[in-house]
Automatic annotation (TrEMBL):
One of its GO terms (molecular function) is aminopeptidase activity. Keywords: Aminopeptidase, Cell membrane, Hydrolase, Membrane, Protease, Transmembrane, Transmembrane helix. This is Hydrolase. It comes from Mycobacterium adipatum. The lineage of its organism: Bacteria, Bacillati, Actinomycetota, Actinomycetes, Mycobacteriales. It is a multi-pass membrane protein. Its main location: membrane.
Length: 346
């Protein structure tokens, strides 16, 4: 049964670890966390970065021209560049499980990661360390919370509270599943200040939203001029299809459209927008599957496969962005969509 989650891709697991002080105020107290996407053995990985200010680890390793083909886990974390220390804890847990590239004397786990800039929400020294990563990966499971959790604990989406969201879909023609998970911490808005509704009309209908009262829209628009300096949305998209490392990177590139469709502006010089892609390889496209009325007949079967998976990845990522924002609860006094625009749920 579908959970509407990245873990609908068989073998993918997700875990969080965060700390949020109940009495935290903006700039004071804990409001930060980490999320780990644990991949099954043999998973191919790739990455695409569109922002001008990324904070990342092991992304060069994912270039299709390089030697290491498989990824053990991906870290999404708060704490800016300091938060990359959480990957050490993920590696320690994986080493205990004997996961990683086999070497003389042991294994070397492959854990790429990326960060959001959320330091102004909590205290500047309140950021994830290796223990956050260890606790997050050891708790990884098929079911996990969304909203103000894990890497989304201190996230903002423009003037609203951001958060951790997920979505999935299955492509019935080929039996392939695609999923996404995202920590929405965007400088741009996810909501149109003129209407109080998401930018994408499809998402308005899918989530059952309606135009909120003018007074609520006016209050939201007044906050729009006070956006803080937070930035960077980071995500993982995953599929169970068998694709090459180069094909996996093409999926990551296509998935970035999901951010551009739901966040305005996205991919700015002060964002570090980064999308990882994982392919477990569990599902082969059916024999003879190839171009159809949905794709030009000049495409090869592999190109056609990447075209439909990439489009699905972008759609899942767009939905996951809205899931994260709608599920977010207030932290450090940052207003939420549900709290500021309740009329949208009437």
């Amino acid at each position: 049964m579908s959970r509407g989650s990245i873990t609908d891709v068989a073998g993918i697991r997700v875990g969080h670890h965060h700390r949020i002080d109940d009495d935290a105020t903006l700039g004071s107290g804990w409001a930060c966390g980490s999320t780990v996407v644990l991949a099954p053995e043999g998973t191919v990985g790739a990455v695409d970065c569109r922002g001008g200010a990324p904070g990342s680890r092991e992304t060069d390793l994912l270039d299709p021209s390089n030697s290491v083909r498989h990824v053990d886990a991906v870290l999404l974390t708060g704490g800016s560049a300091y938060g990359l220390a959480a990957a050490d804890g993920v590696m320690r847990w994986l080493e205990e499980q004997h996961r990683g590239v086999a070497m003389d004397g042991g294994v070397v786990p492959i854990v790429p990661g990326a960060v959001i800039f959320d330091l102004p929400v909590g205290g500047w020294g309140c950021r994830p360390d290796a223990d956050f990563g260890y606790q997050a990966v050891r708790s990884a499971s098929e079911t996990f919370a969304v909203g103000s959790v894990g890497a989304g604990a201190g996230a903002r989406a423009g003037v609203l509270k951001g958060g951790l969201g997920t979505a999935s879909m299955t492509l019935p023609d080929i039996g392939v599943t695609v999923g996404a998970i995202v920590a929405v911490n965007s400088g741009g808005n996810v909501v149109d200040p003129a209407t109080g509704l998401p930018w994408m009309a499809d998402l308005i209908a899918e989530f059952g939203l309606t135009a909120p009262p003018p007074a609520e829209v006016a209050e939201f628009a007044s906050l729009d001029k006070k956006s803080g300096p937070l930035n960077t949305t980071i995500a993982v998209v995953a599929t169970d299809a068998a694709v090459s490392p180069a094909g996996c990177r093409r999926i990551a590139i296509a998935a970035q459209d999901g951010l551009a469709h739901t966040i305005r502006p996205a991919h700015t010089p002060v964002d570090g927008d980064t999308v990882f892609a994982l392919a477990t390889g569990a599902v082969q496209a059916p024999a003879g599957w190839g171009p159809s009325e949905k794709v030009p007949t000049a495409m090869s079967p592999e190109t056609a496969l990447l075209t439909v998976i990439g489009a699905a990845a972008a759609e899942c990522l767009a939905r996951a962005v809205l899931v994260g924002v709608l599920a977010a609860t207030s932290v450090a006094g940052i207003p939420t969509y549900r709290g500021l625009l309740p009329g949208a749920f009437a």
